[in-house]
Amino acid sequence: MTRLTRRAALIGILAAPTLSRAQTIARPARIIVGFPAGGSSDVIARLYAERLRGPAAYATQIVVETRTGAAGRIAVETVKSAIPDGETILQTPASMLTLQPHVFPRQVRYDALVDLVPVSTVVSFPFALAVPAAHPARDFGGFVAWARTQQEVPYASPAAGAAPHFLGVMLARAIGVRMEHVSYRGAAPAMQDLLAGRIQAFIGVLGDIAPFGAQGVRILAVSSERRLPRYPDLPTFAELGHPALTKGEWFGMLLPANTPGPMVQGLFEAIRRAAAEPTMREALERLDYAATVSDSPAAFAARIRREREEWAVTVRESGVQLDDG
Questions:
Q1: CA–CA–CA angle 47, 280, 275 (5° rounding)
Q2: DSSP character string of 244-310
């Protein structure tokens, strides 16, 4: 055996345990989400956890843990400070990584491209504007007419500094009214207040709103590029004359910085397999999400960088900057 061949064999032997562990972690792993149980983050994390666990999956056991507070930033910081052994996974909306650094410049104590390792997106989805069924507005035009008779229109979103918050800022500018943001800790409590009529407008993930369509909620518009097959009668903001309100969102999974490359790749491959399962795609479609996997961890990192730069312009032009969350 030549020296080069022996060296290659030795490298292979040393690398084998790491690669094996990346494919199936023996100890329980956890997916950390920053919003309450019952909301979109929790639901998606549980769907993926079910498919990422098992003897031939990413980890033998995976649980979902909620770490709420600070508009979702506590969950990010929890994973940032975790041991980089592949056992602690962050699932977060894009805005925690791309938008909030501009909105909470003193509160955000992490950089997604320095303190974390991007692995992949897992779903993508549109937002929607909804009002209680008893609201005088029967459609988007009616909402605009009603809003222009109000001194100020309070609207709720799942978190301060998240994309729905800024979609409301953009909506107010587009229709020429004053709108006051009301922050909630997740979609579930906001939907409860919307159903009860305690708030008069909510901008959030369509998948969080749609299940309540027959229970006292009216959806007026969606932020998707075109009408959705499941809701052919629901107009987009673009066709209503406001193309700037065409905004989508994604959830992504990340690991702590310095997590070994084989573990990062192992999780990426497991996510890709899970997202390709027909039962997974069907489950997500029923909830109005689309399974969306990045081309690679590097491609996901590039997307975060690009969208972070784009949101910087939006925040700067809006004049909004929050000192706390």
A1: 90
A2: GG--EEEEEEEEETT--HHHHHHHHHHHHHHHH-HHHHHHHHHTT-EE---S-HHHHHHHHHHHHHH
Would you mind telling me the total number of residues written for the chain in this entry?
325
Q: Which two tokens stand for residue 184?
A: 């909630």
**Cα–Cα dist 318/66, whole Å:** 31
Averaged in consecutive runs of 10 residues, what is the pLDDT profile of the chain (325 residues)?
Answer: 40 36 76 89 95 91 93 93 97 93 91 98 96 96 97 92 90 95 89 94 92 88 93 96 93 98 96 96 91 97 96 84 60
Strand ranges for 100-240 from DSSP E: 116-132, 153-157, 179-183, 202-205, 217-222
Helix (H, G, I), strand (E, B) or coil at 156: strand
Sign of CA dihedral 59, 63, 68, 71: positive
pLDDT in tens, 148-159: 999 999 999 988
pLDDT digits 0-9 by tens, 90-142: 999 998 999 989 988 888 999 999 999 999 999 999 999 999 999 999 999 99
The Cα 304–Cα 165 span in angstroms is: 19
Note whether 120 and 301 are within 8 A (CB).
no
Q: Residue for token digits 């997500």?
A: 284
Beta-carbon-side half-sphere exposure of residue 134 (alpha carbons within 13 Å): 7
- Residue that the structure tokens 């969102």 belong to: 249
